[in-house]
Amino acid sequence: MVQCGWWAGQSRRPEPVPHNCTTADSSLTPMSFVAAPMLQTDTGRPAALGLRANWRQFWLLVVINAFVGAMVGLERTVLPLLGQVEFGLASKSAVLAFIATFGTVKAVTNLFAGRLSDTYGRKRILLAGWLLGLPVPFLVIWAPSWSWIVFANVLLGLNQGLAWSTTVIMKMDLVGRKQRGLAMGLNEFAGYLAVAFAALGTGYLAQVYGLRPQPFYLGIACAAVGLALTLLFVRETHAHVALEATQFSEATGGPTKLSTREILARASWRDPALSSASQAGMVNNLNDGLAWGLFPLFFAAAGLELAQIGILSFTYPAVWGLLQLWTGALSDRWGRKWLIASGMVVQSGALAAIALVRGFWPWFSAAALLGVGTAMVYPTLLAAVGDVAHPRWRGAAVGVYRLWRDSGYVVGALLAGVLADLFGMAWSIGAVALLTLASGLLVTVRMPETLRRD
Questions:
Q1: Is the CB of residue 165 less than 8 Å from the CB of residue 113?
Q2: What's the distance, CA 49 to chain centroid?
Q3: How far apart are CA 293 and CA 304, in angstroms?
Q4: For residue range 134-179, what is the model confidence (pLDDT) as tens digits?
Q5: All domains of the chain in start order, with CATH
Q6: Which segments of 389-424 does DSSP mark as H helices, in order?
Q7: DSSP letters for 141-154
Q8: 354: nearest Cα among 288, 411, 424, 430
Q9: How confident is the model over 362-394, as pLDDT tens digits?
Q10: φ and ψ of 33, to 5 deg
């Protein structure tokens, strides 16, 4: 029984339990609310689950995640070329070091972002992410050495780990389990479409004005607007978490309280669904790290112009982003497992095509196919994690999944760089294609279906 605030049976309108109240149930976190007939949001309205009931906050978070995605898209076309042209980096491994740094920081931050948002609330963590992202474009613009670029990507990793993770978790909180795939599709649609347009825009600006500073003025605007929207308009979702927890039976959701170590074990090897999602997510982002760091160098070595490289850098995340509008919702009807497995196979074929063909239009088609495969996988993996995790430790579970998923940036940057230096860039891309195929087959063999049909 809760020892302060409102309890069931009173005649007056329910009030939310204060953050500093104590509970007899030690499984409740500091942001938890009592399971009462009516739970109130911080605006004083009764909490309700569903996209329609929370459409204002949901679409605000979609817009905010677009600004989060644009922060990464700023680097997609320009930064690898900046390393070669302005800083004289000849080794592919050295150029891709900034992606490994970004991936390491983002992966670890994801782990703590989930647990911190469970404990202290989502909005505070989202604000912290934007504050850490503000210096990034300035550091890239003023960088006198490559070490400044690497440090800027430390801050970018913190920004992405805190801000993107939190927008994902908040959308899960708002919609409940019945529309989780659709919610993740919309979230990733906004984020990666913004990645695509930022890559296209910076490629055009770099072609016209040079590699710096003009392409990175967009980053200053994105960080400022994202911070302002979060500070002024985003509302906490703790009441929605508590409401869903009352509807999530222990029979279907497992224990209501787990330590970080227990969640890490489940998501890494013990739980077939969570661990399968983690490995597929890692390989998926290994592919994305390859596309981010090696593709611009590969295309430039073949004689493509900056504007053409910008279009190719745009095509892959644009198709990925757009199709997630359908693939996320499709997974709510068809299930998660086979969309994930088949999407990994499609990605493998696209990577093999990029390694084998030559010319702008063949690469354009292969980049679009890579976007199709990634769209099948990306929101579906997040939805699968949300299916399995109890609402009370969902944030931490998403954090662990994203820890493994974004470790793929590190593996991708190191593996692609070393193989490219030893055997050439085409062989490096081909090796990653084989690894992606193996990941899809592992999902087929080990992962159960996570979507509940009730």
A1: yes
A2: 23
A3: 16
A4: 999 999 999 999 999 999 999 999 999 999 989 988 998 898 777 8
A5: 1-13+21-38 (no CATH), 55-446 (1.20.1250.20)
A6: 394-423
A7: HH-SSHHHHHHHHH
A8: 430
A9: 999 999 999 999 999 998 998 899 888 877 787
A10: -120, 155
